[in-house]
Amino acid sequence: MPNTRKLILKPLAIDTYHEHIAYLHRQCPLYQSEEFRSLFKVQISNNGDSILATLNIIEGDELLNPNEIGLSIPAFRAFSQNAGCEVQLSPPQPVHSMQAVRAKINGQTLDKTDFMQICQDIIHKRYSNAEIAAFLVACTESGLDRNEVFYLTEAMIETGKRFEWDHAIVVDKHCIGGIPGNRTTMIVTPIIAAHGMLMPKTSSRAITSPAGTADTMETLAEVQLSFEKLQKIVQQTNACLAWGGTAQLAPVDDLLISVERPLKLDSVGQMVASILSKKVAAGSTHLLIDIPVGDTAKVRSMQDAIKLRKLFEFVGDQLKLNLEVMITDGKQPIGRGIGPTLEARDVLQVLNNDPNAPHDLKEKSLELAGRILEFDPDIRGGQGYHLARDILESGRAMTKMQQIIELQGAKTLDLQPAKYSLDITAPQSGRIEAIDNLHIAHLAHIAGAPFDKKAGIDLRQKVGQLVSSGDLLYRIYCERQANQQFVKDLIHHQGIGYQLSEHSL
Q1: Is there a contact between 309 and 316 (Cβ–Cβ < 8 Å)?
Q2: What residues does 329 pair with on adjacent strands?
Q3: In the structure, what pLDDT confidence band is assigned to residue 449 with cuts at 50, 70 and 90?
Q4: Given 27, 32, 172, 221, which is the most exposed site by the fewest CB atoms within 10 A?
Q5: Which class is 2-90 in CATH?
Q6: What kind and span of H or E run contains 99?
Q7: pTM, whole model, 2 decimals?
Q8: Is 485 exposed, middle or buried (0-12, 13-18, 19+ CB in 10 A)?
């Protein structure tokens, strides 16, 4: 009987992102067993090496023969076995932490051990994407109390690597998101590093937005860097601007995000755990959190902002993290560009002291940088903003940014937007009273951002400005005509995202 469970290993050119997927031919003798059915988890083994994968079934002989087992690209890479070798298929051991997930679905409170076991099983690929989704939905629907958020944060940290720095103060900042174009991190980081403070900035990619810091920085430099390379870059420059995924900092978070993205989930408790786990894993001792508040931001009221601030402060205190929260204006996008290339253009304009640089992006960056600089005990309260401005206007921040880009691996600078454009004009004369952050972000996302780096939106008018009928409000860029049509359809059904009031010009 053991020989009937042996199959020939075949890699298949199918990208399943983080998920490990195995494929059997429908006529494979093993498929007739109750142990090996579609969407069941299986264990594939050879010479002491094994991998867990979710089983899918293939019809026809084009990809697999009945005596073969196929592995998706990420599964084959993780298995480290040669194509054509003989592997054994067996049922996996039960994943006991799923009992805790089911308890959470039923509204129960989980303890520290529960979260640690769940995170260990996720990181060892014992959960399918469907099971990860069940955990995320349970945390969203049932909610996490503040102790659960702390336990989840600790578990995320403990299941990955951690940077250790020989500095008493290691700083970082994070915006909770929801404001298109808010690319302050790429301006703040070189300002702080030029001052001499350590700021190892690792960022996630966009979840539901048109760009994250890592997506935008990737237009200028490599962001997928190893733990060891990041360490060397920070030691040489005081900073980095990289994606945290390849450094294995709180890697459970990246697996959760990969499932959150298509589900468009963004629960408060999981968001706080995600942010703080990355910061502590990066070795931060001092952290500034930016919470924008606005009618179409993630946080809609001052009451909700204060509640979120208290949660950050509680978990930060438990982690021995010196944490400060800034509640900022989130009524409209920051800067002009929305999407990686357009946002990179705005950032470089600010760093180069270009007179045409977006004023709001520059000012918010200086305010944030100033607060971070005041973590330095040698800088008096209220002096940080002026110091940040001096560092920016002297060119030292741009010099530092160039140094970071070179060490991470500079890319050929190309700030030209995507080839297809669509102009959105004012339907009437009047004053711009509001801009819908969510709708504008969704339009940029449908246009192709962040996956098409050059796609996105270039804003020409902001809240408070007077426009005439037919004036250009914003221009949408797409790499493909199909995306352009999707954008037109969305605007036809949901509008342009601008609210204008009648006003005599």
Answers
A1: no
A2: 293
A3: very high
A4: 32
A5: mainly beta
A6: helix 98-105
A7: 0.89
A8: middle
Q: pLDDT tens for residues 23-34? A: 999 998 887 676
Question: Within a 10 A sphere around the Cβ of 4, how many other Cβ atoms?
Answer: 10
Give the gyration radius of the chain's Cα atoms: 25
Instruction: Give the integer Cα–Cα distance in Å for 447 and 449.
Output: 6
| 3-class secondary-structure state, position 198 | strand
pLDDT band (50, 70, 90) for residue 207: low
CA distance 209 to 266: 11
Mean pLDDT, residues 223-246 taken together: 94
**How far is 162 from 176, CA to CA, in rounded Å?**
22
Quickly list DSSP for 150-167: HHHHHHHHHTSB----S-
Backbone dihedral angles phi then psi of residue 125, each to the nearest 5 degrees: 60, 30
Amino acid identity of 378? D
Sequence letter at residue 336: R
Least confident of 27-36, 67-76, 153-162: 27-36
For the record, the structure tokens of 80 come out as 């480290």
Domain 420-501 class in CATH? alpha beta
Which residues is 62 bridged to in the sheet? none
Closest CA to 392 of 353, 348, 355, 354: 353
Q: Which two tokens stand for residue 408?
A: 């991470």
> Is residue 20 a contact partner of residue 123, using CB atoms and an 8 Å limit?
no
The H or E element spanning position 203 is: strand 199-203
Nearest to 200 by CA among 228, 226, 163: 163
Where do you find CATH 2.40.40.20 in the chain?
A: 2-90
Please tell me whether residue 301 adopts helix, strand or coil conformation.
coil
Question: For residue 346, what is the enclosing H or E element?
Answer: helix 340-351
Fold of 171-249+259-408: Pyrimidine Nucleoside Phosphorylase; Chain A, domain 2 (3.40.1030)
Q: Is 448 exposed, middle or buried (0-12, 13-18, 19+ CB in 10 A)?
A: buried
Residue with tokens 């360490």: 231
Q: Give the residue numbers marked as catalytic.
A: 266
* CATH 3.90.1170.30-classified regions of the chain: 420-501
Amino acid identity at 416? Q
Give the highest mean pLDDT range of 15-24, 202-211, 344-353.
Answer: 344-353
Q: For residue 164, count other CB atoms closer than 10 A to its CB.
A: 8
Query: CA-to-CA distance for 308 and 129, rounded, in angstroms?
Result: 28
**CATH 3.40.1030.10 location in the chain:** 171-249+259-408
Residue 381 DSSP class: T
Could you give the CA distance from residue 459 to residue 441 in angstroms, rounded to a whole number? 12
Q: Which of helix, strand or coil describes residue 46?
A: strand
